[in-house]
Amino acid sequence: MAMGGGYPAIRTLGLGGLLVSFADRLSEPANRAALAFRAAVERETWPGVEETSTSLASVFLRFDPLSVAPADLRARLAALLERQDWYGAALPANRRRWRIPTVYGTDLAPQLEEAAAAAGMSVADAVAELSQATVRVLTIGFAPGQPYLGELPPAWDIPRQVALTRRVPEGALVVAIRQFVLFSAATPTGWRHIGQTAFRAFRPESEEPFPLRPGDELVFPAVSREAFEAIRAADASGDGGAVVEAIG
Amino acid sequence: MRELIVSRAGPAVTVQDTGRPGMLMQGLSRGGAADPVALAEGAALLGQAGDLAALEMAGFGGAFAVTEPARFALTGAPMRADIDGKAIAWSASHLIVPGQVLTVGGAERGAYGYLHLGGGIATEPVLGSRAAHLVAGIGAPVQAGARLPLGPDPRTEAGLILDVEDRFSGGMIRIVHSAQTALFAPEERERFEATEFTRDDRANRMGVRLTMAGAGFAADRQLSILSEVIVPGDIQVTGDGTPFVLLPECQTTGGYPRLGTVIPADLPAMAQAGPGARLRFRFVGFDEALEAERRHRMMLRDLPRRPRPAIRDPREIPDLLSYRLIDGMISAHDT
Fold first, then answer.
1. In terms of domains, do B60 and B144 share one?
2. Are B27 and A190 a contacting pair at CB < 8 A?
3. In the prediction, which pLDDT does A5 show?
4. Is residue B187 part of a domain?
5. Strand pairing of B112-117 and B258-262?
6. What domain range is B241 assigned to?
7. pLDDT at B329
8. Domain count along chain B
9. CA A101: distance to chain centroid?
10. pLDDT (tens digit, 9 = 90+) per residue, B234-249?
11. pLDDT computed for residue B311 by the predictor
12. Is the CB of A196 inside 8 Å of chain B's CB atoms?
């Protein structure tokens, strides 16, 4: 079951947390492993475990360290890891594909040129590549409903910037390390802001507050500033002009 | 309808309770009161459940009135407080009647003061909690002119006081190793423990920025590590080497390396370190951290038994003769 390089690995995260990591960098199998292993941990319903979640290539367990010994929980996790080849697990069921209209660059997304330069291509080539890429929701995190999306072509393996940008708005499409993030709230970030959408990934007032799920596919087709403003003005749902279809 | 009328409010007054645990998978951090001990102290002073909502006042309070007589308690960072100009005790419960004005000023020490009402603040819950989570766009700061509904309050006792230890002035904070501690060389970790930090003015419910003399702290592979789950108390080091201690409203995942995690028992003191407070950090082993957690929970369990009647100066009691001096809250010994 081992993938080598010391993975999967179980480490502590604070006093009441354990982290099961499947890789130290993002890969398709490691992401599948995290999603499937978390589902398996949930099915176990171990006493003392209060919450589980996934990030890109890991599963987190929050537990009460006074009601379950961390060493016991670690042993249970190790045994569960041995049960199957998690890296070969299937994607979650009921996935969907979303096409979300996006303005690249302009004053709405002022770091497109900088990001294209970091990726070693012209702005036109950057827009062509980014607007045609199909990416998958690898995990929901950082902020409510907010997807980490990947993987982008290898040229987009650009680092985060050293300093934080003080604030990017809700709906911002940002890029780093072969991933997009579609921001669900205005926030400071170290990722570069290259596109702007009118999509709301968190809708606290809605029946479905978190529209995106791990495994969903997303495409960000380029639209003009004028088309985007028209979409934004007309949109009441939070979909921002997105077209959605089931992909199984 | 029983309401709290807010006639003036500081810039960062929000409704808070114990937050929304269990939504990490959806990317929503727990949030809730920055100082959960202060929330529990208010519940103890009013003799009510610990999950009722209160007003959290960051740095500065406001002016408040009520539509019907109400009990209230003030806890957390000590702030100047008075009713119609007459000073009242902090970490204590009181009564207010319609027509009176409760004024809460700036924090004398610490960062977050709390105003608790008998019956709690009964605004409409969102995703199972009344807590504002500003980063997530849930709720908003309380503004002047707001009228906040109050829950029913079956109890009547007030005039109690709670002795609290000073957790509002910084000091030594205990931390444990975290998943990424090993990315920092042993010399960097030692330098971190040897450094005296100042709580920067840039601090909010997401986290506290630390400033220090000397160079920033560097990890291996600082800018390209995989985004990983974050827990409150994590000490995140950004690309320029600046440490941030993350608080209840932090993001749920992040890609900056984390040097360690503040133990839950010391997190209230971390959140309450006011502007300019000095802080130091010390790594402790898991056994010591678990023992601290045990003691912390014992302290919380014991809180409801600790409020005691306030000692009052008889010259400040206008109708002394109407008090029964033999029993009740005012005893001959107290006065």
1. yes
2. no
3. 76
4. yes
5. unpaired
6. 171-297
7. 44
8. 2
9. 19
10. 999 988 899 999 999 9
11. 73
12. no
Considering the domain architecture, whether residues B218 and B269 belong to the same structural domain is answered as yes
Do B175 and B86 have their domain in common? no
* pLDDT at site A3: 52
- Report the pLDDT value the prediction gives residue A146, as an integer from 0 to 100: 95
Burial of A154 (0-12, 13-18, 19+ CB in 10 A): exposed
Do B137 and B252 sit in the same domain of this protein?
Answer: no
Tell me, what's the pLDDT at B222? Answer: 56
The identity of residue B13, as a single letter, is V
pTM for the complete prediction? 0.89
* Beta-sheet strands, E only, within chain A: 9-12, 17-21, 49-55, 58-63, 96-99, 103-104, 134-140, 147-150, 165-168, 172-176, 179-182, 187-189, 192-196, 217-219, 243-246
Region A85-94: mean pLDDT is: 92
Check CB contact of B300 with chain A, cutoff 8 Å.
no
pLDDT above 90 for B225: no
A219 interfaces chain B, CB cutoff of 8 Å: no
Q: Which two tokens stand for residue A86?
A: 């998690």
pLDDT of A8 higher than 50: yes
Q: Are B42 and B113 in contact (CB under 8 A)?
A: no
Nearest to B231 among A13, A204, A205 (CB): A13
The CA-CA-CA angle for residues A61, B112, B258, to 5°, reads 35
Nearest chain B alpha carbon to A58? B228
- Tokens at B99, concatenated: 């027509």
For residue B232, being part of any structural domain is answered with yes
Token couple for A197: 């959408």
Domain identity same for B150 and B9: yes
pLDDT band at A4, cuts 50/70/90? low
Q: Is B261 within 8 Å of A15 when comparing Cβ atoms?
A: yes
Say if residue A63's pLDDT is above 60. yes
Tell me the shortest Cα–Cα distance from B134 to chain A, in angstroms. 9
Q: With a CB-CB cutoff of 8 Å, which residues 259-278 of chain B face chain A?
A: 261, 263-264
A17 at interface of B, judged by CB pairs closer than 8 A: yes
- Residue B316, pLDDT score: 57
| Tens digit of each residue's pLDDT (9 = 90 or more) over B22-50 | 999 999 999 999 999 999 999 999 999 99
Do B39 and B131 lie in one domain? The reply is yes
Residue B101 lies in a domain: yes
Residues B182 and B244 in one domain: yes
Instruction: Specify the residue for token string 């003691």.
Output: B295
Same domain for B62 and B18: yes
**How many angstroms away from the CA of A244 is the closest CA of chain B?**
20
Domain boundary among B162, B184, B213: B162
Which of A14, A141, A162 lies at the smallest CB-CB distance from B178? A14
B257 domain residue, yes or no: yes
Which residue's entry shows tokens 């599963």?
A59
